[in-house]
Task: inverse folding
């Protein structure tokens, strides 16, 4: 099976505060996007990485990635108004021989190569819809509109879902085609696994990684810098 990865990177990342689009924020001197693309490209099974960049930054992102050496073929396309549209734009340019598609958030810039390979292996074993996930550490309580606790949720069966998420190409293509035709409701899916679930496919969860955290808030940039420095020093994470 030929494997390609799509990276929707057109979001602004307003929770990070003023500045460039989130994917272009820097850690260790390089944009988050570069770290994410490198992690995917370094995975032995991945042959192509397609980046859906902000419309106004397509040329800049193309030039940025062209100046670097990756183990996989890199393509850049214009992203859409939503994450779902950006992924669809990436899918549209994949070669016909691609059988497995990964969708990965640029904000999870330091995802380990081992996790990428774990997701691919699960798809190759016969699972059409695969996500990495971690057990939830915090106590989870459900509250009403007044902020009053109404239920303490049993966290034993809960998982915090990460990316890359992996799919058979046919299943993901079909899900996006149905979404574009308005067959899956008006609410955009928050991730592609959810979109595929709406088409009746179960989601299989593999064990995730603490290093695949999502950079969302300013403090996450600090954590990412610390993890990157730790890796460069050769220390165990």
Result:
């Amino acid at each position: 099976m030929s494997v390609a990865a799509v990276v929707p990177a057109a979001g602004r990342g307003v929770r990070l505060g003023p500045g460039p689009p989130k994917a272009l924020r820097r850690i260790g001197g390089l944009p988050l996007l570069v770290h994410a693309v490198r992690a995917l490209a370094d995975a032995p099974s991945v042959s192509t990485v397609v980046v859906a960049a902000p419309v106004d930054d397509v040329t800049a992102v193309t030039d940025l990635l062209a100046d670097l050496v990756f183990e996989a073929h890199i393509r850049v396309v214009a992203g859409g108004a939503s994450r779902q549209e950006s992924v669809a734009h990436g899918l549209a340019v994949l070669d016909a021989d691609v059988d497995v598609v990964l969708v990965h958030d640029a904000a999870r810039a330091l995802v380990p190569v081992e996790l990428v390979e774990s997701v691919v292996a699960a798809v190759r074993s016969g699972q059409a819809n695969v996500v990495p996930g971690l057990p939830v550490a915090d106590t989870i309580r459900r509250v009403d509109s007044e902020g009053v606790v109404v239920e303490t949720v049993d966290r034993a069966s809960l998982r915090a879902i990460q990316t890359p998420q992996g799919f058979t190409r046919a299943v993901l293509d079909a899900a996006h085609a149905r979404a574009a035709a308005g067959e899956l409701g008006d609410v955009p899916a928050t991730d592609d696994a959810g979109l595929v679930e709406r088409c009746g496919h179960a989601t299989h969860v593999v064990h995730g990684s603490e290093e695949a955290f999502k950079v969302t808030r300013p403090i996450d940039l600090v954590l990412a810098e610390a993890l990157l420095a730790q890796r460069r020093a050769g220390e165990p994470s």
About this structure: The chain has a mean pLDDT of 93. The chain has one domain: 2-129+162-232. The chain is about 30% helix and 25% strand. The CA atoms of residues 130 and 204 lie 5 Å apart.
